Structure prediction request, 375 residues.
Amino acid sequence: MLTCRRPRSARLVVHVALVLASPLWLFAAATTAECGQSWASTGNSAPNGLVVVIENKPQENKLNLEALNNPYISGVALQIHWSDLEPVEGKPDWSRLDQLFAAAESSKKWVQLLIFAGFFSPPWALHGVHTEMFPLQYGPGKGTVAPLPMPWDELYLNRWFAFVKRLSERYGNSPAFRVIAAAGPTSVSAEYTLPSKPEDIPTWLKAGYTPEKYAAAWEKTFRVYAAAFPNQYISVSMGFGLNINERGKIAPRERKETRQEIIDEAMSVLGRRFVLQFSNLDGFPGAGPGPRAVGFVIGYNGRIITGLQLRTSCERNSGNMGAEGNPPLALKKSLDIGMQPNAAGQHINYLEIYEPDVLADDLQPVLRDGALLFK
Prediction:
């Protein structure tokens, strides 16, 4: 059974009380992170610095980890599908993760795992599960229609949690393993985003979506991760809910309310091991959804661990990153926006850059300057 939850108004009061009562430990946590010391609750120092994002390519025999040799890089974040790790139930193929952790430990880089469930669950994990057909919202295969398990389906979640526990048993004590992205009630990535185009809404209404049901699935997820990964920080990659309220009516403010509710729940359950991340940073300033969300995360700097990930590669898609035909400028503009301090003078703890940018010769001066911002 999913956890019975307090009404939204009651949860808001509790969260405000926690925030007002906790400035001392929040300040201490931020100070500890800046000093590079370990927190007793994690056994690892806080994630920090520039991070290379590596995408698993199933068609290749092994991961290309050349980027871990870059001196300006502090960590590595691997994007990989659940279906590529556990094609047969209970028989995971750990070969790529073994390779990753061995390389990270030898190169003194810390690791974040971004394992995608949802659309990328293995077929066996969907047997008997409530699924609906949706197009992938973004990324490789965008527009492809595929079955998506409902985020609250208990059979699906329990199968995912069983994999999560096997993962923790194998790698939970690795000194390189710093961050694990919370996933499960997700769709196309580790972000808590769902297909949300107008044509998708009738499908969600028919499936019985409510913000309470969605948030309850996330609360259960946070509790499982908190128990399974006592030595790691747990990141939540920010997204939104749907514009559907508890009565099954269209309500434009529900997306943001659900976003905040999930963040508040993560803070409550995970405490100082919670990491808030946004994965759509680019070099375009302004007031669009992307810049507003970046500013939202930056507002938490110093209170909790925060991180940003570039939307795509500047080397390959400079026009989409703020400077058509000029990858170094696109990367610089993105770093300048992401590294802005907030009103308290605090900046994010880490910033993730895709592998082609870390390997590109013309971007090395920008990477060097970016790395210095974290010293």
Summary: The chain has a mean pLDDT of 90. The longest strand covers residues 274-281.
